């Protein structure tokens, strides 16, 4: 099954693993020490991240070292950016409406003269 980057970041444990190794490569045992789940469960999450292209695993002697490959996250960033722009435009329109309403409230009430 081909997994994508959106599947990878859907799980909080996988996001935490990405954050953990983003600045420093680690072996699977070192990663597992940071979680309250079993070592095999961490290995499964690492495997999914590898399938999604967010981690590469390099064998160094008997150890498997995980390195982050963050380039695929650009796809997520691009997708989110479309919605960020959409919501910024909507908030700007709402600001305009609220300012107009505020201006209307601040206008003095004109009393009609009796004739």
From TrEMBL:
CDD domains: HTH_ARSR. Residues 1-91 form the HTH arsR-type domain. Signal peptide: none annotated. InterPro entries: ArsR-like_HTH, HTH_ArsR_DNA-bd_dom, WH-like_DNA-bd_sf, WH_DNA-bd_sf. Gene3D superfamilies: Winged helix-like DNA-binding domain superfamily/Winged helix DNA-binding domain. GO terms for molecular function: DNA-binding transcription factor activity. NCBIfam families: HTH_metalloreg. PANTHER family: TRANSCRIPTIONAL REGULATORY PROTEIN. This is Winged helix-turn-helix domain-containing protein.
